[in-house]
Write a structure and sequence with these properties.
Radius of gyration: 25 Å
Shape: globular
Number of helices: 21
Strand content: 5-15%
Strand order of the largest sheet: 1-11-2-3-4-5
Number of strands: 11
Helix content: 40-55%
Structural class: alpha+beta
Amino acid sequence: MDSFSRFVSDDAQLDDVDNAIWNDGVTRSIEQWPASGSVEKVKKTVRKGVVDSKRKKLWLRVCGGAAFLEKRPQYYLETLQAMYGPIIPDSFDIPSQFTPCCQLRYFWLSLTGRQIAHKILNVLAHLHPDVQSCPLLATTVVMLLHFMDEDQCFACAECLLESKRETYFEHSHSGFVASQRTLTDLARSRISPSFKFLTRAVSERIERRVPVRDEVMYEQLKGWQTWVFGVLPFPLLVRVFDCFFVEGLKVLFRVGLAILKHFYAEFKHHAVSGDLHNAVCEYVKHPPNELLQTGFKVRRVSRRLLERYRARNVSASQSLGDIADHGFQSFIVVPQADKQSAIVTEASQWHTLWSWLPSRFQVCKPCRLFSTEDDGYNLTTLYNRCGSHEPLLLFVRTPQKESVGAFLSSSWERRFPRFHYFGTGETFVFSLTPEKRQYRWTEEIDVNAYFMAGDDSCLAVGGGRSSYALWLDHDLNKGVAGPSTTFDNPPLVPSANTSDNSFTVSSVEIYGFEDH
């Protein structure tokens, strides 16, 4: 189809839309976007459906990509060349901070299109080290690339991340967890009959004789974004994105509420068999045609209400995340590592460390990639053993049995072509002995986004104040652990030389993460 980009296979199909609703007035409103009066007219029209031949122009305009390219037509290419030099790689992995909330569906993208989507995500990660976690961005880039060229896709995604007019994405893990919880609050207050039915279904499934508490329902419905991004058929998901780009994040909540309403209508006279989340996923594979219309009919889903629920849920998710810091590590399950660590030797240390990780990695199995005991004291060997793995856990031990380290958000392959800082705000440093302490990024991007750096002579984590949070030399014999502005940490190694924070290294280990 002519409406698709060159990265899409010939088999791609979309639903037909009545061309009559797209008159010259609508086209002018798109061209005038976001001038006063144009937004409401475009919103009403887009809710009815978008003509395929108009979609690219609509998305470029409302996302901001068209205006961006007018001002900075070479920005994407210049950024690529600054990152990789004259020879740009052919293959890319998805950056860890953009790991999707469910398995990424590429739909009709060719293999070339998929790698271009990964490339764009890597450029966005480079430009936005402050974005700690944005699970919805990968699917957004895939959808954009179905209808436009590479630089246009980048421009739209960049503008969506930077948008001040609408909120499109959460930029932190706590924000994403809050969005997972917010649908439960909306369902309780805006579609009460459906929510009560779901609560009863959950209560019967777990055989409770007392009312189900809020946390149980949060847990049951937290995967609602999987229904939208991981299950909805492509033609309907395209229509969701039409509205999402015009109206922002609240469209996704409306779609989630609509799914619950229709699920209730289908099953209110029947028992829900099996897990509720899986039952909804099965239902959404063949959704009703009026799903979007149902979502837009739900009353009083305002930005103010969403922001109120979000603020409350960010606070709640952070409190829940603090459970392990208050001595309840038994709630954290640490998968068994493939090889035993000679540095992190106690189960309590692993539990504490796991409680600090971003939750999407807590279900992964730690796998040892490098140890000085097995692989020798050589930084080049360490880099080679790590390869393209990301994220990573770095452990360092001193002769005084002090254990410190860092969670490294990115692959060491990104250290090329010269010593420079890279990585994301998910990076943190820590000490395990003599005391367990974690130091996160202070989030002052303009002055201290110094996460990771390395070359053949050394590796470094953190920076500022003329000191690294953790630094190792080429022979992995000497280290520095000073106060850094990146993490606002004190010296991590108590026995370090007080004049320059240097210390002797006893052993080094690197662990990666793999699904199990």
